[in-house]
Design goal:
mainly alpha; 2 helices
């Protein structure tokens, strides 16, 4: 039929490894980690724009402007702190990058990693 496509006989046999399943709370934090890349900058832009708009609307530097400007600066800083903590926690708990590498994980004879 198609001579340019490799046949299944020519393909090397691949062994499928079992899926890596981290605990649900870690997977949730990983999702937050990915979303935080966008939320940090969006928060900075949104809060900074609100502070700028309020300042030029009132022509005064009041507490509301200072709070919005401070929150705009704190948003990416807090996101960076969370990301640093999450990576550090992951490397500390799972140094090999596998959920069975956790120091206090119960022995699982089917995992083959102990």
């Amino acid at each position: 039929m198609h001579d340019d496509l490799p046949s299944s006989e020519d393909a090397p046999s691949q062994t499928l490894e079992p899926a890596v399943r981290f605990p649900l709370w870690v997977r949730g934090l990983a999702m937050v980690f990915v979303l935080s890349r966008f939320v940090g900058m969006a928060g900075f832009v949104l809060l900074g724009t609100l502070a700028w708009w309020r300042y030029f609307k009132q022509q005064a530097l009041d507490i509301g402007v200072l709070v919005l400007a401070g929150a705009a600066v704190a948003c990416p800083l807090c996101i960076a702190l969370f990301q640093w903590w999450f990576v550090r926690m992951g490397r500390r708990r799972w140094p090999g990058g596998h959920p069975h590498d956790e120091p206090n994980a119960p022995y699982d004879p089917t995992s083959g990693s102990h």
